[in-house]
Amino acid sequence: MTKAADIDIAAVSKVYGNTTAVHAISLKIPAATYCCLLGPSGCGKTTTLRMIAGHENITTGDILLGNTIVNDLPPASRGTAMMFQSYALFPHLDLVDNVAFSLKMKGMAKDERRREALEMLKLMQLEPYATRRPAQLSGGQQQRVALARALITKPEALLLDEPLSALDPFLKIRMRAELKKLQTSLGITFVHVTHSQEEAMALADIIVVMNDGRIEQAAPPRKIFEKPATAFVARFMGNHNIITGRLVGKSDDEVTIELPGGMRFFAPGLVPHAEMTADIAVRIDHVRVGESPMAGFGFTGIVSNIEDLGATVKITVSAPGLEDFTVVMGDAAFFAEPFKIGDAVPLSWSPSDAIVLGRVKQ
Ligand SMILES: Nc1ncnc2c1ncn2[C@@H]1O[C@H](COP(=O)(O)OP(=O)(O)OP(=O)(O)O)[C@@H](O)[C@H]1O
Questions:
Q1: Which of 15, 38, 43, 47, when mutated, tests ligand 1's pocket best, judged by the most ligand atoms within 8 Å of its CB?
Q2: 91, pLDDT greater than 80
Q3: One domain for residues 256 and 153
Q4: DSSP readout, 97-120?
């Protein structure tokens, strides 16, 4: 295969009429990285991917692949290949001709391009189906044909737009593992658009969380999970409680917030000078139930919902001025001393489990 390329997105914006889909984002994706662009519908991830591919013009800024500014290069000259959500296979061509198509466009002789296409089908374990048409394949096999067709051009970076969305849940997990294996063995850069936190966590070396055309955080999955940078990331990843309150105390290394009901919470960290409120995050699985809390690192609330999820039990607790607070307990711990809706329960956490969240400039 070919070498991988760094991708450097430098202050790139995309404006469609009155809509700014992407607001001057900057991002460096090191060569041979598996990068997931993650965010809710409309956050600008597909637009970003299409600008890297060259299917969309950049309004301002630069995109570099390796040392080359590719802003004005057509897609086929960039060293990237794109795999589309719908796979976009030609229904009337067999697999060999589907995969060989871009080589045909480049003017490669028939024998040579068919030989290369067969090699690629072999790599994707599709050789036995070489003479079939796409409709005669399963969803997972069609996806592998689409991958083969993208990889035949020996790209430095493969761009994947929701590549797993057409698959059923079981196949999704299998193909996810195959994608990761493929990226590792090819050693090229993958940029994969998804709205699934789980998919991004499972695949990425770097997750880029986008919201409203901006990057909220770009970091390895572990860091995103353990230290979300903003309330948006913490909410979107779904594993943190967020406590938002008026900033009533601030030292060099700790903040104090107060909720409308009067409860106060502390957390190590800093917030910018101008802020009037601050957000503190606490992981739902780092909350202890039943121990009386240390001042500022817990509270007593009323159980408003209990969901038995099998290995764990998810409990929702309410208190004045708080968004619903979620706690996940192991099933053994819960059923040893179960409680019911309406019970008052003390919740607590370690000071090191409280994180002050930042904000992205709007
Ligand atoms: N061709 C277009 N013309 C006008 N607005 C567009 C166009 N393409 C995208 N947009 C707008 O730009 C914003 C970002 O769209 P984009 O498709 O990049 O989001 P996304 O995060 O990929 O969403 P999804 O997961 O739904 O595909 C949206 O507000 C969308 O409506």
A1: 47
A2: yes
A3: no
A4: HHHHHHHHHTT--HHHHHHHHHHH
List the domain range (segments joined by +) for residue 271.
Answer: 231-357
What lines the ligand 1 site, CB under 6 Å? 16, 19, 21, 39, 41-47, 195
Q: Determine the distance separating the centroid of ligand 1 and the alpha carbon of 102, expressed in angstroms.
A: 28
Minimal-distance CA residue to ligand 1 atom 24: 41
Residue 1 has pLDDT above 50, yes or no: no
Residue 159 confidence (pLDDT) above 90: yes
Residues 12 and 98 reside in one and the same domain? yes
Closest residue by CA, ligand 1 atom 10: 21
CATH number at residue 77: 3.40.50.300
2, pLDDT greater than 60: no
Structure confidence by residue, pLDDT tens digits, 246-289: 999 888 888 999 998 889 999 988 887 778 999 999 999 999 99
Q: Is the pLDDT of residue 292 over 70?
A: yes
Q: How confident is the model at residue 362 (pLDDT cuts 50, 70, 90)?
A: low
Which residue is associated with the tokens 């960290």?
Answer: 269
Question: CB within 8 A of 184, min separation 6: which ones?
Answer: none
Same-domain status, 212 and 260: no
Distance in angstroms (rounded) separating the CA atoms of residues 158 and 191: 6
- The number of residues in the chain equals 362
Query: Is residue 362 assigned to a domain?
Result: no
Q: Answer yes or no: is the ipTM higher than 0.85.
A: yes
CA 96 to ligand 1 center in whole angstroms: 34
Residue 57 has φ and ψ, to the nearest 5°, of -75, 150
Query: Ligand 1: distance of its center to the CA of 75 in Å?
Result: 20
d(CA 44, ligand 1 centre) in Å: 6
Dist. CA 21 → ligand 1 center (Å): 6
Integer Cα distance of 150 and 160 in angstroms: 10
